Amino acid sequence: MAGGAGMIQAVFFDLYGTLVDVQTNEQSLPPYERLAEWLSDRKLRANPQALQKAYLDEVDRLQKKSTDPETEIDIRQVFEKLLTDLGANKPAASLVTDLAWAFRRFTRSRLQPIPGANDLIQRLRKDYRLGIISNAQKLFTDPELEELRLVDPFEAVILSSETGYKKPSTRMFEVGLQALEVAPDEAIFVGDSYQDDVVGAKQVGLRVLHYCPSDTSQTGPVEPDGRIKKISEVTKYLDEWHEPIETPLVDEILDDDE
12, 6, 10, 9: which is closest to 198 by C-alpha? Predict the structure, then answer.
């Protein structure tokens, strides 16, 4: 268990798998049948099987365009192409957003806070600045944060679809630190992925708590500063790391009193 030099001012979290439990299935046909009906209501005819193939193929094409594995795609481009191919010439931004959100709702089977997450956030927001750093798509994530009432507690929400790169890229964490104007030793990061969260955050000097609720957790050459099975255990580490900072001025005043 590692202590630190700076007073903790900010806590960053990964989102999906750490604060929010989500399950989706883009490989199943029924969601595309519902999406075809949604499009039909807007005078756009689509075959569910063709719609599924077009979506998966375009995601795959965009992902293969870059040779950098840390490059992130913007899913908006996928839905823009789907609409264009269906005959919507220069589709309005609002239609693209509505289609993306309909797709997310239809492919999603579960969305709920991780047990204890809401209580933890409400407790921490009184004493710390909070941020999210997540490999996620803005078109999907923004409505879900609203749905779960998770917008207000967070001063910064850093999403890979907006930055253009994804964790474990150090750039994601650097953007978060800059957004809250804190140094690495003044913040901690909490995440459930060893490679994306532990390795990535440690590379920029953040203290990291690896959230691993199962009995097994991935290990490697980079060690987190702590492992937690319940998200509520974050406070235990914060209490330990929240040490008063001694300054020369304080020492001088104490010497004068003597």
Answer: 12
Q: What is the mean pLDDT of residues 60-81?
A: 95
Residues 63-87, mean pLDDT to the nearest whole number: 95
DSSP per-residue string spanning 164-180: SB-TT-HHHHHHHHHHH
- What is the structure's pLDDT at 218? 74
Q: Is 233 exposed, middle or buried (0-12, 13-18, 19+ CB in 10 A)?
A: middle
**Class for the domain spanning 10-19+114-241:** alpha beta
Close Cβ partners of 54 (under 8 Å, ≥ 6 residues apart): 81, 82, 85
DSSP lists the bridge partners of residue 227 as 210
Residue 59: Cβ within 10 Å count = 15
What is the distance between the alpha carbons of residues 65 and 27, in angstroms, rounded to a whole number? 22
Task: Tell me phi and psi for residue 75, to 5 degrees.
Answer: -60, -20
Q: How confident is the model at residue 78 (pLDDT cuts 50, 70, 90)?
A: very high
- Amino acid identity for residue 238 in this structure: L
Q: Span 230-240, mean pLDDT?
A: 96
Give the Cα separation of 180 and 106 in Å (integer).
Answer: 35
Closest CA relative to residue 226, chosen from 234, 4, 117, 218: 234
Delimit the domains of the chain by residue range. Answer: 10-19+114-241, 23-110
89 vs 210, residue with greater confidence: 210
The structure's pTM equals 0.89
Phi, psi (deg, nearest 5) at residue 137: -100, 125
- Any idea what the Cα angle at residue 245 is, between residues 241 and 246, rounded to 5°? 140
Instruction: Assign 249 a pLDDT band (cuts: 50, 70, 90).
Output: very low
